[in-house]
Amino acid sequence: MPSTSPEESAMQPAKHSRPSKEAARVHLRPPTAVTCSWQVSSLNETKATQIMQLKPTQFVRFNQRQLVRIYPSSYRVDSSNYNPQPFWNSGCHLVALNYQSEGRVLQLNRAKFSSNGNCGYILKPKCMCKGAFNPILEDSLQDQVKTQLVLKIISGQQFPKPKDSMLGDRGEIIDPFVEVEIIGLPVDCCKDHTRVVDDNGMHQYSAH
After folding, report:
1. Separation between Cα atoms, residue 80 and residue 54, nearest integer Å
2. Is the pLDDT of residue 36 over 60?
């Protein structure tokens, strides 16, 4: 399978004589006879971010007919990771990460793909397969029916003690709480937590 398609060159910023401070122009060509859905356009995170900011709606449409792979910038010499969520929001198919760097980004990646049994892929929502929207707007899908998620924390027990406890190996009694965060389109993002339960990390408790 080719690693790039003829359209990749179309997604490169056009050369011009204006100062470099000005945003580069980006062209997303319409489908032609030479573009095939099974060909992959590989873009680094910097180039993809530029395209997404300049032409977000066109980028969504492009991802509906063409495979797109995003990979970390070569400047990430420390193997750090970028936030994959904006590229998922735009419909990018392959968002490569540095798996050797554990942290919040890989937690987000595992959480996303756990919804399909960790088999390696998930299906796009229907709204991302037909039509177009602007994924960077605060409320980009105003015509979609809103869904309210209600969670009830029943109980918790046997929580581990902090590794950096001031009491050494004996540890210390923790004050647990549960925090839930939803990450997706800007309109979906929110975070909330239960009340803090003082000095109770071992026995079952309720935290509504």
Report:
1. 25
2. yes
Last residue of a domain, one of 100, 128, 156: 128
> Phi, psi (5° rounding) for residue 96?
-80, 140
pLDDT tens digit sequence for 132-183: 888 888 877 777 778 888 888 887 777 777 666 655 555 567 778 888 889 9
Q: Is the pTM of this model over 0.85?
A: no
**DSSP assignment, residue 69?**
E
Closest C-alpha to 82, from 103, 63, 67: 103
Structure tokens belonging to residue 176: 């647990």
User: What is the DSSP secondary structure assignment for residue 146, as one 8-state letter?
Assistant: P
Host domain of residue 106: 9-128
* Residues 111, 22 share a domain: yes
- The sign of the torsion formed by the CA atoms of 57, 63, 33, 41 equals positive
